[in-house]
């Protein structure tokens, strides 16, 4: 068995948990498989729970890390241009907020291919931590020192010994992936200087709920944060959330700044977002009672649109093979009969099959010569960028099907 079920909340450790969404059993979304290996694929439950004590929305079925992250891990941040632009702006924002001296240290947990740190190499000392070896190698090729493995308290102690404490620690789109949050926060406390700041960016529960982004649920995403449970978490370690910002990445994210308690004033952004969450109802179970029904309604609509086109003999393909696209394809039960192929720019994914739905992934070059009738936009978070980039394809007659927040044909 390579998964286990947790009986207590990851943040407050209490057991008063209610299931709010069940998507069925899914294979890990980043395990694009080779043709012929379909039978070896494992599936695990994908159910979302609400903590009635601290309001954390989370998965409790934990697929072991070696099933999710491996040498061939698919995600290279720098392969999505909008994401690189995002990190460039993120770096500017951090430099504006915090004056960095050349001997200050910036540590990025889950540094991927160095997508954020590359913007700091002329500013201060940088250190990446990345468990996926082939992704880390790309960062090293850019001259960014990168440690292998997962961040732990022990690793934090080793870093302090060798490099000293960090002025800024960042953890982007990884803080929601961590099962043992206590270990990370203990490590952060060791590594962070007393005047330092810990910055995390994660997809935001309020956007997920308001824009029906249920496809962003997958096994790697263990937590769907709002500000309230994060305040709860840091409080347990005598730390505090000092500021929060909403950012547009991944369909809506929150950037959260946390620090050791030093009696400094807290930015009004924290109280403002907490109050917005309260008004939106996401601190109470009642807000989630229709979540399952709404997700199923969207699924049924999308399935009927795609199969309707197929009945008319139309060719349907998909655009982008993001992790969330696999949740959507599998929840809909789509196969190669519904969707002829998926185009994606990531070299690792090209030539393989999408997990679960087993649809071939091909290079976007095919769209230079072929014009599908309808293209399901799985990378809907890049909607404007892609619709604009594919103006020519659309002029040739291809129509995009946008699945989220509601099924729309453009
Ligand atoms: P992304 O939404 O960044 O991430 P996640 O997997 O966390 O949901 O993934 C976008 C995917 O879409 C990625 O595999 C690259 C691909 N892509 C394209 O093929 N063409 C494009 O123009 C863009 C922007 C992305
Ligand atoms: Zn809790």
From TrEMBL:
Q: Does the keyword Ribosomal protein apply?
A: no
Q: What is this protein called?
A: SAM-dependent methyltransferase
SUPFAM superfamilies under this entry?
S-adenosyl-L-methionine-dependent methyltransferases (SSF53335)
Which Pfam family would be a valid example here?
Methyltransf_13
Start and end of every Methyltransferase putative zinc binding domain? 9-69
**What is one Gene Ontology biological process annotated in the Swiss-Prot or TrEMBL record?**
methylation
Checking CDD domains in the record gives: AdoMet_MTases
Which GO molecular function annotations are given, in alphabetical order? methyltransferase activity
Name the InterPro entries for this protein: Methyltransf_Zn-bd_dom_put, Methyltransf_Zn-bd_dom_put_sf, MeTrfase_14, SAM-dependent_MTases_sf
Name the domain of life: Bacteria
């Amino acid at each position: 068995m390579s998964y286990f079920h947790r009986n207590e909340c990851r943040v407050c450790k209490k057991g008063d948990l209610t299931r709010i969404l069940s998507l069925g059993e899914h294979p890990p979304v980043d395990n694009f498989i080779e043709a012929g290996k379909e039978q070896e694929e494992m599936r695990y439950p994908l159910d979302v729970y609400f903590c009635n004590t601290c309001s954390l929305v989370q998965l409790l079925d934990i697929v072991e890390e070696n099933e999710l992250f491996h040498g061939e891990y698919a995600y290279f941040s720098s392969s999505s241009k909008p994401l690189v632009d995002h990190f460039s702006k993120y770096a500017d924002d951090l430099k504006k907020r915090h004056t960095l001296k050349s001997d200050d240290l910036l540590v990025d947990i889950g540094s991927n291919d160095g997508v954020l740190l590359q913007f700091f190499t002329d500013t201060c000392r940088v250190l990446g931590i990345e468990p996926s070896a082939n992704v880390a190698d790309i960062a090293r090729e850019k001259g960014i020192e990168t440690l292998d493995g997962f961040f732990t308290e022990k690793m934090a102690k080793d870093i302090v010994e060798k490099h000293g404490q960090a002025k800024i620690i960042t953890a982007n789109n990884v803080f929601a992936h961590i099962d043992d949050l206590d270990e990370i926060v203990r490590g952060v406390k060791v590594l962070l200087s007393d005047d330092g700041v810990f910055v995390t960016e994660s997809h935001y529960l309020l956007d997920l709920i308001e824009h029906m982004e249920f496809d962003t649920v997958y096994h790697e995403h263990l937590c769907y944060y709002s500000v309230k449970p994060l305040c709860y978490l840091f409080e347990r370690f005598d730390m505090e959330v000092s500021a929060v910002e909403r950012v547009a990445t991944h369909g809506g994210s929150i950037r959260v700044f946390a620090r050791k308690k030093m009696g400094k004033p807290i930015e009004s952004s924290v109280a403002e977002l907490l109050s917005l969450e309260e008004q939106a109802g996401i601190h109470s179970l009642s807000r989630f009672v229709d979540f399952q029904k709404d997700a199923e309604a969207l699924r049924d609509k999308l399935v009927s649109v795609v199969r309707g086109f197929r009945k008319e003999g139309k060719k349907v393909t998909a655009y982008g093979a993001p992790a969330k696209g696999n949740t959507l394809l599998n929840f809909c039960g789509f196969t190669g009969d519904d969707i002829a192929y998926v185009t994606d720019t990531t070299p690792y994914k090209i030539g393989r099959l999408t997990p679960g739905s087993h649809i071939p992934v091909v290079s976007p070059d095919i769209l230079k010569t072929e014009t599908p009738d309808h293209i399901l936009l799985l990378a809907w978070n890049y909607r404007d960028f892609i619709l604009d980039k594919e103006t020519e394809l659309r002029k040739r007659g291809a129509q995009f099907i946008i699945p989220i927040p509601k099924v729309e044909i453009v």
